[in-house]
Amino acid sequence: MKRKMHVLASVVALTMALTACGDKSSNNTASTTTPAASASTSTAKDTITALLPPVSPNFQKNFEQISKDFTAQYPNLTLKIEPASWEDVKQKLDTQVNAGSPPDIAFAGSDSISKYVEQGLLMDITGTATPEMVGDYDKAPLEYMKNGKGLYGFPAYMEVHALGGNREFLEKAGIDWKKVQQNGWTYDEFRQAIKKGVVTENGKTRYGFVFAVKGVAAIDYLGVMAKNAGMPAAFNKDLKYAYTSKNYLGLLKDLRALIDDGSMPKELSSVDAGKRWNMFLTGQTMITGKGLATFENSAKTNNAKIKANDGSAVKDSIPVDYIVLPAPTFQGAKPSSSTVVDGYLTFRGKKEPTAEHKANVVKAAYFLASGKVAATTNNDLFAAGITQSGRKAAESMKIDRMPENVTAVENMLKNATPARPDIPSDLGAKAIKLETEVIVPKFQGLIAGEVTPEAMYEAVKAAAIAAFGDNGIVKD
């Protein structure tokens, strides 16, 4: 899942901003509807386009109703939604951006903001979003949608990339998962725990840990763990590239060791997100990653299908109590939970949009990211609300979550990686390019046993010096 932005928030400030009530002016009132953008009072007909993936399991099923509700609130406006899969949404968006004709709104990770800012087609809505809109959000997630002084959309949710465990297997291995949820664990503790989770029965092996790493998913694994290894972002506070640190080499060695231990499959490089989840539900691994809160919901749904003898349950799956677990910390580093803030980015074409169209795009982006739409989507994801209007709308919606998992997520959010809107867009774009061209293929090679940790580290260091200069990297 990640962030290049404007002022480095302290962990304390971030923690305060993540409290249930948020940090809001007393003049703001919660509502399940969205306030109109005051930047334009035009009643001229206009169409806003949006490219949207399946943000939650039922999100795309609601597209027709979402469009109807939007037009009911703004009779002169039409919200035209183009659905996309998670597999092709990025490619579709990049193709449209490169052609100079992006959609008005696209759902994407906040980590991609710097890249699109550099391409000149993201639309800064700082002067168009109304105070009521901005004030509806908790401060922390909104910071992730910024770069420099610009605001480039509205966040949909702020969640943590956690690990997930099978309660029965954890307890059979003697792992005190409640203690881990509360206090976390070090790499050494984690390494020993997943060794205990390896079991061979009837010629079949259950692994201690499996993480999806096929394709671009490899960077998720490395990114989640790097944050807990003293590198919460690609750049330190002095804007030096961080992945040339000795901690990075140590991390690469540690991650490779988990495979060499036999705690993870040697064929890990072939495991994609679907296979990872299938292995978890069919009892082939004790712990899986990366996990979001919605995985508990997915496991409960499959459990119900098994109980009802429903043929649509995952083949050969077993009942699973999904336990949220933090990622381990490495080399004495402090916990720094990998936060994921995705949202509705606002784009412009090659021509400057009219003030009226810009205001209409803001209305649509905010409509999608707040109130009833946000509440419905976040409840589907088991994600906490980040707007007053969303929390208000969610009060009447039922949600069945394990209390211990709720607390575990809250504990991780207290150590959430802060937003980094201070990282200039040009540095952020270079870091993404380095990640795509060097880190991802080298890490895939490391996972496959084709590249050593030392060789990958030296390749990343050489590429970093070429991109940022010898004085632009961390030397320790």
UniProtKB/TrEMBL annotation:
<keyword id="KW-0732">Signal</keyword>
<dbReference type="Pfam" id="PF01547">
    <property type="entry name" value="SBP_bac_1"/>
</dbReference>
<dbReference type="InterPro" id="IPR050490">
    <property type="entry name" value="Bact_solute-bd_prot1"/>
</dbReference>
<dbReference type="InterPro" id="IPR006059">
    <property type="entry name" value="SBP"/>
</dbReference>
<feature type="region of interest" description="Disordered">
    <location>
        <begin position="24"/>
        <end position="43"/>
    </location>
</feature>
<feature type="signal peptide">
    <location>
        <begin position="1"/>
        <end position="20"/>
    </location>
</feature>
<protein>
    <submittedName>
        <fullName>ABC transporter substrate-binding protein</fullName>
    </submittedName>
</protein>
